[in-house]
Amino acid sequence: MKRTALFAAVLLTTTAPVFAQTMPAPTVLVGGQSMFPGKTIVANAVNSADHTTLVAAVKAAGLVDTLNSKGPFTVFAPTNEAFAALPAGTVDTLLKPENKAMLTRVLTYHVVAGEYDTTRLRAMIRAGNGSATLTTVEGGKLWLMMNGPSNIIVKDAKGDVADIGISDVHQSNGVIQVIDHVLLPG
Question: Residue 153 contacts by C-beta under 8 Å, 6 or more apart in sequence?
């Protein structure tokens, strides 16, 4: 009996790591849907009920192919509520074909070349004595700071601030940081 228990313990210890390695990676829920690390930024975003406005804007701006490309990109992704908080009519105006250039500018202001998870962002903020600056694909700057021991905030060129609500949503071509306000270039 003792040998059987010992054999079972040895078998469990030697096979457990192999079993753990074959399990699929956990996903993060965004907008009530799982985000899969093997999918692109766009492939995951279209499934999020909280990002339908962002997806519509990305399509209207013609940025789907860009955000499906190899990357890596970090996207600070505003929720539907963030877009709804803009002055009345702003989103409808931006989605008009004649405003495609402005829409593209606003959207690319939310994208940074490279993969910036919160561990990397926190290290940059510490190294910068409380602040870090990222250059967006649009060419503008975003400033990142800590708001408490773990929450990171993002400040835009107009001085408005967004909280990262859901962090480190890894994609095959980058990472999404879900934010609660639309960032605006200067």
Answer: 144, 145, 146, 147, 161, 162, 163, 164
Lowest average pLDDT, out of 21-25, 122-126, 164-168, 180-184, goes to 21-25
pLDDT in tens, 59-118: 999 999 888 899 899 999 999 999 999 999 999 999 999 999 999 999 999 999 999 999
Burial class (CB in 10 A: 0-12, 13-18, 19+), 3: exposed
Q: How far is 183 from 45, CA to CA, in rounded Å?
A: 18
- Domains of the chain with CATH codes: 25-179 (2.30.180.10)
Pair 158, 186: CB distance under 8 Å: yes
As a whole number of angstroms, the distance between CA 179 and CA 154 comes to 8
Q: Is 110 left (phi over 0), alpha (psi -120 to 50) or beta?
A: alpha
What separation, in Å, do the N-terminal and C-terminal C-alpha atoms of the chain show? 75
Q: What are phi and psi of 110, to 5 degrees?
A: -95, 0
Residues 6+ apart with CB under 8 A from 72: 113, 114, 115, 173, 174, 175
* Tokens representing residue 114 in the block: 């490279």
